[in-house]
Amino acid sequence: MCPYCSSPFVLDVQHPQTVLAHLGAHILHDPKVNRNAQPCGLCGGPSRLCRFFLKKSHSAGGGMTVNMEASKGCSNLVKKFNYSTAAKSSSQNSPCSNVQLRCPECDSSEPTVWRYNLRYHLQNDHPQIPITRHAHLWGLSDNENTWMLALLTKIKEGKEKRTKKVKPALAISTAHSSKLALRSV
Ligand SMILES: [Zn+2]
Ligand SMILES: [Zn+2]
Ligand SMILES: [Zn+2]
After folding, report:
1. Measured between alpha carbons, how far is 27 from 161 in angstroms, rounded to an integer?
2. Centroid of ligand 2 to alpha carbon of 41 (angstroms)
3. Bridge partners of 94?
4. Among 14, 89, 109, 145, which residue's CB has the most CB atoms within a 10 Å radius?
5. 98-156: per-residue pLDDT in tens?
6. What distance in angstroms lies between residue 105's CA and the mean position of ligand 3's atoms?
7. What pLDDT score was predicted for residue 46?
8. Strand stretches in the chain, DSSP E
9. Which numbered ligand comes closest to the C-alpha of 22?
10. Distance from residue 104's CA to the centre of ligand 2 (Å)
């Protein structure tokens, strides 16, 4: 469930990029979110509980990917996503660039920092470093800011486009009812 939506909203963890965009919109523009808590891009919880690591991707083109084996603590990390696509804000339909980054000032064995949190991480953990030095990593384009604000407006109006489910109806209702049961505990 989204921790920031006022009416219950199930995050579609089978489509991680939609989750990144949904929570990213809250993180960037929702006054409810405490940016200093550095919320996790996949579950919205405090980042220190969710530890992510990257590794070199074996797919064509190289690049990085989330190390599913080494990453720990985030219950919403259930499915791999295309890291290089998720790292780019490319259009209104793919507006969010919030991915896990290696902090250039941390030891390489440290867990990653979400792009949207990097500025806060630098301020807190590396106050001696001028914040502008890594602006190319945490700075966002005007387009991304605008698109993400538009997405938050849609979320708040309950009009966010949901991913079409291809699962049979029975599977959906089972998953749904177990979620509801969990929530009522
Ligand atoms: Zn939400
Ligand atoms: Zn998390
Ligand atoms: Zn750092």
Report:
1. 19
2. 6
3. 91
4. 89
5. 999 999 999 999 999 999 999 999 999 999 999 999 999 999 999 999 999 999 999 99
6. 5
7. 86
8. 54-56, 64-66, 100-101, 113-114
9. 1
10. 21
